[in-house]
Automatic annotation (TrEMBL):
Residues 337-374 are annotated as: Disordered. One of its GO terms (molecular function) is hydrolase activity. This is Alpha/beta hydrolase fold-3 domain-containing protein. Keywords: Hydrolase. Residues 345-359 have a biased composition (Low complexity). Residues 365-374 have a biased composition (Basic residues). It comes from the Bacteria.
Amino acid sequence: MASDTSATRTPHRWMRRLQGRVMPVELERRLADVAIRSAFAGLDTLGLIDIDLGRTRYPVKIQRDLRYGDREHSGRADFYRPDGQRPRAIILYIHGGGFRIGSKDSHWPMPWILARHGYAVLAIDYRLAPEHPYPAAVEDARAARVWMSAQAPELGIENLPWVVAGESSGANVALALGLAHLVASDEPWARGLSENYAAPRAIIPTCGYLQVSNPRRFEHRRRLPAFVTDRLYEASEAYLRTRDPESCPLVDPLVVLEQLERLDAELPAFFTAVGTADPLLDDTRRLERAANRLGARICAHYFTGEFHSFHAFPWRPASRTYWQKLLGFLDAICPPEGGRRPDQRSSSPCASSRGGSTSTNSKRSPAKLRKVTT
């Protein structure tokens, strides 16, 4: 893999140094969290979060600040569930924020919408960079996944299929966690997952930053505003610090997927979406190609002209379409208890829409590693 793990070459590094002196990362984090939460609270007051998607909506019950994990790796999580309704699945939701900002509290609309439509969701906080670079986030995600399994009877989610989802940087963590259940890894945080725990029924990376080791690649595709370029380098530098991705390949889960030639185990289904104006567009395109090559079922939606994390604004037409497609996908792969789970080779739950193009693949193929240059 050809990669550039250093962000020191970006001409905007001096801006970050100045920013770090004027606004320490902890202050930036708190201000961003308050701003996002306040914006969503205002939109909710205006009725712009709880939109009608043409589906049954359930009251949502939330248990806040549950402590997950063990003494070594622990964090807090909020547990959302449809009140009075047996969930169809449990979704481990991992928020975005460039690995540096964001929280379960700031990104509450996404798990809330899922619970409103019949799904239980565990939305987690995890340790953030740069104080806690890789593998802190995936260590915490693993701890949450193991805790979720152990606590299933108490949470009322026993025997339910599980799904892992995230957006932006959270999509990276979600994809890495999902792959760690499929591919034996020497990375300490991933050991034992593929042998001892069931793989997710589906992996849902939205607008994902799926390879952090080479932010320079984005500059080769198109001319990006200096601020956007700097944010991409900033996230890469904060998450990787001095780590060599060759020694921790799951920091780039997309590249791991691209290197697989075959898998003996059945791959989870994938749902992914991105706007065509998103600087991270190419990572989703590569994910689609890799999943198709491996024979995985993938629903990939491209929304013309939409920006990064467009799905977080549910009153907008494209976001509305995103949620309708995602919920339809989940309904298809997670039927009600007693219902028949669709065969991987059956008709796909993906459907094309005016909001974006859709790609599907329902074939399977059995996993060797293939060297990929990116």
